[in-house]
Design a protein that fits this description.
Helices cover 80% and strands 0% of the residues. It is globular. It contains 17 helices and no strands. The protein is mostly helical and 404 residues long. The protein folds into 2 domains: 179 residues, Growth Hormone, Chain: A (Up-down Bundle); 181 residues, Growth Hormone, Chain: A.
Length: 404
Amino acid sequence: MQVPSIDATHLEAGTRAYRRANFAMFLGGFACFAMLYATQPLLPLFADIFGVTSTHASLSVSFGTGALALALIPASLLSDRFGRLTIMRWALALSALMALLVPFVQSFDALLVLRALLGLCLAGLPAAAMAYLGEEVAPSAQGRAMGLYIAGNAFGGMSGRFLSAGITDLSDWRTGLFCIGLLGALAAAAFFYALPDSRHFRRRSIRLDAVWRDTCALYRDAGLPWLFMCAFLLMGAFVALYNFLTFRLSGAPFELGQTAIGAIFLLYLVGTWASAWAGQLADRIGRRNVLWMMVVLMIVGVLLTAVRWLPGVIVGIGVFTLGYFGAHTTCSGWVSRRAGGSRALAAALYLSSYYLGSSVLGSSVGFAWDHGAWPAVVAVLVSLSAAVLGIAFHLRRIPKAGSA
């Protein structure tokens, strides 16, 4: 039987167009997450400057991630209708504009509005990026392209936090966030010119009845709703830890400056390694075995952060980060395996749950900080992680769907 050949217009590894696509997608992912999380290390500063509580200050992160979560599925449908490039280019350009406006606000409420608008605009990039790579890159080269895009996400999230904190230490928070917005604008311009045109996109009509039918089918699956819940709890716990860690490290007994706090986010590099490691481990021993192990690491890491010795706290953060990225990688891969022909919609639902967890839990854990300081935060994070552990053991018992 003759094996069909790949269309020569697909982007093959080693070609100039493939390198341009990788460069553009790395930049896009970098800019997206640098802008989205740039305010996280500045939360204690916002609380002091604007006279708000720690929970209220954390909304500068949660409004962005919450708006992104709500816009992901609509943005995905728009990319089906108007094209991947159009949606991604507009997403980066408009979000860079919002980021550049944030430093000029005079009230915290205005800052929150612009952060929500930024998240709304950003949704177009993750909603269309995976589909673009799947359509335009040759199958033999897709793994590397996807990996580089995800690496851009992680590197951007880490760099945005570190740069905003460092520049704030040298100048002020307005300069720090303006520089992040400027970085986003430059990345948007480079993305616009570097990304090769779509050659395999086919316009699709937006049929809401079909989307609703497919969504209901996904939620009837024995495993997918639990995996969506894992996304909500995992990301919520992860963002909450880093949100309120900034308050703990800026106070006694540590009293770290903005740059030192920003440097803590370099532990994201552990997560980049953990994602690849967990994926390989899941291939060897199965996702059902890997997920609960990663969650146990999260619990151990959270408990280690309770010590009043800075090196111990850093080790705890590193262990928690390793476990979180390993668990997230395992769950997201599991969703793809169980979803069958509805992978794109399942991925959008997973990411929506993921960012809603960031928004809802990332701020609401602030009530624990306000009333019981770090021990209360640790108790809540252990509870959230324990809930994921319970789901992980439940998922071990569900019937396999295909190869999942």
